[in-house]
């Protein structure tokens, strides 16, 4: 197997991937060490890889490790989902919620609490997954005709309409029931704190399938970027590529939203930053977006712990506060928005 030379495009992409991977590891270590109480790197390693029995070890293993793992996986999932959305819709402002995934997940939780009075964490995750999957399926079936004509914009319009409808219905349930209001006002913030490590297992399992679909879809997105006629001439099966992309977005964004609540901007910003580094080659853009999304959400969660002592800001709030100026910069710089 030939090793890419440092000056070649493949060598540059490999070096960037290694740098982003290193940044992800640093973000994870800082997340484990920093909080209301700063813990030394040696104690972090001791808590992770030995049977140290101390208060700091308990804090790391029971509190910081679960939220760090969830932030890494959810951030990566949202970053890749955003890259797929922008690639398929050719819309630089597309993000995972465009297909109604976030609204569907929120409505699923609202129905669970309003109808059954259940607010257990595991039950809300299942309800959010069912809601996200159902809405994606409905949008896909309604837009099947548009998909056959290659009109992905119409599919995005259907998703936006469905999201608006579900948001209105969710608001109605909240106004009618105090318990639903109490659950949703915390769930909708978007956070990785106060989640058990057990939740990372289903999130990681579903996200892995989504990552596989996204990787397989990257080759087709490169061809689709040249136009559907050219893509078909190159041997790309356009309709199948669209279906695989939509399935990947649903699994990645649905799983992340179900566990952490709706978190905006990660799926929007991460692909743009990745595109600056990789260009329009989705074979590199997809893994770059995953690593950047993981770093952004993990860093936001860590910053939120120390930004407003003695309390803390949830990751979803920090991402929006930081992401809004970034979005303004994106819309003002043509080089970033060009797809």
How does this structure look, described?
- The protein is mostly helical and 339 residues long.
- Helices cover 77% and strands 0% of the residues.
- The protein has 15 helices and no strands.
- Helix 3 runs antiparallel to helix 11, helix 5 runs antiparallel to helix 7 and helix 12 crosses helix 14.
- The radius of gyration is 20 Å and the shape is globular.
Q: Short description, anyone?
A:
This protein is mainly α and 339 residues long. It contains 15 helices and no strands.
What would the average pLDDT be, to the nearest integer?
Answer: 83
Helical region count?
A: 15
Uncertain residue segments: none
Global structural class: mainly alpha
Straight-line N-to-C gap: 33 Å
Shape call: globular
Order of helices and strands: HHHHHHHHHHHHHHH
Q: Outline the biggest β-sheet.
A: none
Q: Hey, roughly how much beta strand do the residues contain? A: under 5%
Set down the secondary structure blueprint.
Blueprint: H1 9-33, H2 41-49, H3 55-89, H4 101-116, H5 121-142, H6 144-148, H7 152-176, H8 178-187, H9 200-224, H10 228-233, H11 238-260, H12 266-278, H13 282-307, H14 315-332, H15 334-337
Helix pairs in contact: 1-3, 1-13, 2-3, 3-9, 3-11, 3-12, 3-13, 4-5, 4-7, 4-8, 4-11, 5-7, 5-11, 7-8, 9-11, 9-13, 12-13, 12-14, 13-14
């Amino acid at each position: 197997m030939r090793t890419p030379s440092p000056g070649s495009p493949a060598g540059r992409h490999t070096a960037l991937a290694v740098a982003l991977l290193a940044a992800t590891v640093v973000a994870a270590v800082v997340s484990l060490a920093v909080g209301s109480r700063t813990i030394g790197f040696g104690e972090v390693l001791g808590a992770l890889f030995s049977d140290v029995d101390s208060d700091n070890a308990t804090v790391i293993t029971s509190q910081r490790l679960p939220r760090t793992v969830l932030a890494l996986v959810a951030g990566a999932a949202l970053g890749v989902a955003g890259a797929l959305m922008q690639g398929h819709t050719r819309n630089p402002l597309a993000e995972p919620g465009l297909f109604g995934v976030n609204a569907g997940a929120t409505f699923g939780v609202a129905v669970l609490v309003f109808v059954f009075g259940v607010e257990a964490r595991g039950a809300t995750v299942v309800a959010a997954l069912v809601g996200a999957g159902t809405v994606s399926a409905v949008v896909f079936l309604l837009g099947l005709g548009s998909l056959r004509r290659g009109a992905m914009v119409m599919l995005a319009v259907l998703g936006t309409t469905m999201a608006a409808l579900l948001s209105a219905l969710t608001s109605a349930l909240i106004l009618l029931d105090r318990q639903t209001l109490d659950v949703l006002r915390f769930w909708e913030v978007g956070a990785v704190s106060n989640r058990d490590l057990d939740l990372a297992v289903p999130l990681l399992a579903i996200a892995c399938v989504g990552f596989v679909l996204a990787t397989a879809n990257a080759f087709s997105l490169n061809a689709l970027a040249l136009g559907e006629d050219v893509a078909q001439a190159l041997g790309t099966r356009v309709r199948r590529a669209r279906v695989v992309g939509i399935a990947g977005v649903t699994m990645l964004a649905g799983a992340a939203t179900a566990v952490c609540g709706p978190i905006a901007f990660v799926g929007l910003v991460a692909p743009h930053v990745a595109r600056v580094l990789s260009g329009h080659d989705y074979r590199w853009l997809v893994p770059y977006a995953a690593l950047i999304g993981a770093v952004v959400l993990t860093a936001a969660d860590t910053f939120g712990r120390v930004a407003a002592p003695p309390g803390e800001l949830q990751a979803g709030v920090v991402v929006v506060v930081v992401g809004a100026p970034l979005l303004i910069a994106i819309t003002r710089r043509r080089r970033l928005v060009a797809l």
